[in-house]
Amino acid sequence: xxxxxxxxxIYTNNIELFKDLESLLTSKKFPCLFAMNSFHKNHxxxxxxxxxxxxxxxxxYNQLSNFSKYIKKYNKEKNFYTxxxxxxxxxxxSPEFLKDFIFSFLIKLKEYDSTxxxxxxxxxxxxxxxxxxxxxxxxPVFLCPEHISTIRRANISIIAFQPNQTFDLLKQHPNNxxxxxxxxxxxxxxxxxxxxxxxxxxxxxxxxxxxxxxGFDPIHPNES
Length: 224
Hints:
This protein has 224 residues and is of the alpha+beta class. Helices cover 40% and strands 13% of the residues. It has a six-stranded mixed sheet. Helix 1 (7-13) packs across helix 2 and helix 4 (57-71) crosses helix 5 (95-110). It is globular, with a radius of gyration of 17 Å.
């Protein structure tokens, strides 16, 4: 059953949530041009899980699974499909708490994986780790109020689940579109940080995918 809605439906049915997302995605402190395209082209979908009892992970898993199947019919055309999961926010925003919060979230989702694969927190910290469900790779990106990183602060707590298939398709687009957009995003990040990138965005960081998930380097959490 499809319970996620695209951003235009959110505008009609939940204007307050729409305004929270619009405020984030049009902010000068938000750098991701891929997400902005997703929003403006109506390729962004939202599943509000903020009121689920003790996070009913099976329902979240089902929506991600359904979304992955839904967008496969567009896998031969340029698109920016992504799904935003609205969640109950963490009780703390310390690096250690956020790491445990997000890693535990991903581990619980993985328990419903049809491949019967399981993951641990140590697995997520590995250099070659990629988060997948039913063999589909996702890049979860966490944002919340009072996040320790400027570019991960939002009015509400969300995890943007970006499908790897979307990025693979954009990389195939002519005129070096993907790299140009990626470079433009990095230029926005440099301006936000006044050309003094924090540790997790520097060449000194560990470079693992978990950095993208969390918004800081979990191996060097206290480096600013």
